[in-house]
Specification:
The protein contains 15 helices and 16 strands. The protein is an alpha/beta fold. Strands 1, 2, 3, 4, 5, 8, 15 and 16 form an eight-stranded mixed β-sheet that branches. A hairpin with a 5-residue loop joins strand 11 and strand 12.
Amino acid sequence: MLLLAACGGGDGGPAAGGPAASAAAGPETVTRADADLVIWAGEAQAAALDGALAAFGEELDVSTAVQVVDDAERRAAFINANTAGEGPDVVVGTHDWLSGLLQNGAIDPVALSPVDQGRYVPMALQGVTSNGQLYGLPYAFESLALYRNTDLAPTPPATFEDLVAAASSPGVEHPLCLPVGTGGDAVSLQPLYASAGGYLFGVTTEGELDPNDLGVGQPGSLVAAAKLSELGGSGVLQTAITADNAVPLFAEGRCPFLVAGPDAAADLGGVPVAVSAVPGFADLAPAVPFTVVHAFFVASKGSSGDLAQQFVLDAVNSPAAMGALHDAEPRPPAMTDVLTQVGAADPAMAAFAAAALGGQLLPDLRRLAEVLGPLGHAEAAIIAGAAPEETMRSAGRTIADALQ
């Protein structure tokens, strides 16, 4: 949903802050560049950091390097290299890395002052906080939202039933481009699953994730299963719509609505669009997407810990850096003033921010794939015609067994 496609590995990195793409490699082969301050990031983030790194290196007379490491490789590569004392000083990742990084002792707290914390969206700070301690500097947050082709659907739907009615016009090939696929996509279906009362895990009285309260197979998930069955039977949801073809189909004008993240906007060409939160079912709960926070983490065993803290707290913790990161990879900025400026100039980005703030943080669970995988498979099977209640209950049993 929210990933880049850069390439990872190698140790080539320029002095004085220029981004360096390195040869493709597995996590075990990524090695630290030869510089005083080293950052591992995605391709777009590396480009955005170029100016801040160059200025930082020149001011302190230190060499800097940013290495492009693929998103799919970066977390494992970072943990492995940090454990060996050969990793970067700073790594860019998402909030759902946090528990794994802490379990491996891979990161240090970030000493952001209370005054500076007040400059950030609280939800973004929450994503990188554990036991009351801040462990990352957030720079962006995002969730899925609803793109609407305003030529095909002039009026924004207030409920999901309104969306279905608007998408039922003669000549509409696909009512809704929401990725399902034959293997399912629990993240894309989350807004509807939540609106019907489904949840992954409950929360404790302290607001922490409760892994003992699994929602899959509980009554709310069964209501969601029934809704998915209806939508599959009517053709509103289709396993033929996948993560690969959802955006192209919408861009070609073959469906009036698309559920996707802000990154999809770059691929829509001249389609006239408006963006809003995914609507929930009438008379049920609001639709609640998962929200992901993007952040800078300071390595626990980097060779330049003080430089890393200084870079994150001074160079990155600035409107200029936050603006550059947004321009390179448009997502709602986590710094409030920058978010306000961006939202005033870009109504779609303001709508994405509102959708994300109405969402819930993607659970920071190292074994989340063992939850989302079976749930997604069950949802796809139900949409394709499987018995909704038993299929959802079976998914709950599979997940419970896997998490034991």
